[in-house]
Structure prediction request, 501 residues.
Amino acid sequence: MKKIVLIGLLLGFAAGGFGQAAPKREMRAVWIATVENIDWPSVTGLTTEQQQREMVEILDHVKAFNMNTVVFQIRPDADALYASPLEPWSEWLSGRQGAAPDPWYDPLEFAISECRKRGLDIHVWFNPYRAIQNIDKTVAAPNHVTNTHPEWIVTYGNKRYFDPGIPEAREFVARVVSDVVRRYDIDAVHFDDYFYPYKIAGVNFPDDNSFERSPNGYSADRRDDWRRNNVDLIIKQLSDSIKSIKPTVEFGISPFGVWRNQTVDPAGSATRAGVTNYDDLYADILKWQKEGWIDYVTPQLYWFIGKEVADYAILADWWAQNSFGCQLYIGQALYLLDSESRDPAWRTAGEIVKQVKLNRSISHIAGSMFFSAKHLKSNPLRIKEQLLRELYRYPALTPVNNRITPVVPAQPQQTFFQKKGKTFQLEWKKGNNNAMFVIYKFKKRDRPNLENPENIVTVTAQKAVSIDWNRKTKPSRYNYWVTALSATHHESQPVLFEKSK
Prediction:
């Protein structure tokens, strides 16, 4: 996840002004970065047991923050944190690219299983074009693309990249993504801001050969348009591939926070960013939204409210006005909270609180994604307490995405509860199109109100929940209900739990 400081960038549902009750549906996600061991695993060379323990700890923190989604980086450098038939095991697992976990396990399959236990969605995060993070340190495995297809690769700075202008390179990336969509129970495919790399001053990206080979009708003076078209081609191809394999899987992009500055394009934002998606990364995000090629966008608004060159408030409003029907979440800079920050705004968790409140006041903003997961554990400036006090006090369900064809769930079946020692257990069976379940609790005298998140007990993919028996929970005082969520997050009608006979 690129972090750019300009001269001078994860969730909330648009539902009114400041101070309102938390919405029932709101994207609340966190990025789990694997590259350079940012979040997970914490260091290379951990045992399988240690890696799994760290993942469970992260997911427990996600649940404790009342979040509902993780964005798990599984392909940082043309490598894999899953059992890939196309690319080698990532060096960020063992310290040596190509070395499988020992004892063997599939980290992605493990993460999916643990997410489902906790009622969490999982988006898998690919870096499409970076091939080697640091050419001075990485020793590429024999089956790494830099060895098997060096003709697709260019060196820029101290990194190696796929050349987006080579059709075969784009096809390979699409095969990698399609393989994961086909084989794993994921909710979304996620790309961040890396398409063409961030520019190195005075150094041209070395794509002369690919331009001469495949100009696609563009003249030499339109090299930038050609590059943008190359990125358009892979986005459109991936969109078509994902939907042809699993129509319920979303395709999301987390771009740099500024599309274009208003000074060069009247349609741009009132900013003075030194880098923009359109002009520097050759990523025309607005086109992808307009064409319906992506299902959600999460601009990395890693600036504070009031920043002169890139004001969070201005940009949040600009993206909302330019969403073109695409689901909009905001990337929140959890990593910038620091009591010693050079920017006073980041010396208090109140900045994030203000930003989430602002999100909720702007139509079309459906939530946040936070960078990154290790800060859930460190809890900088007590951000957890700040969020849970008001904004994230109750769980929230993942928003429905209107770009995805709905899957309607049937009600859960055969619901009952029974006392077991100092606990009682709610049990049920799956109905058709049941992916997860929401448990609600109401006082006996109250009519069920499924729109109030205060009534949500938990969300889970399992078919039983055990609850401690006490004055605040016992079924003689409360009724418990269950609904089912489909893969598209649509919710069934509720079913009451009756005492087992």
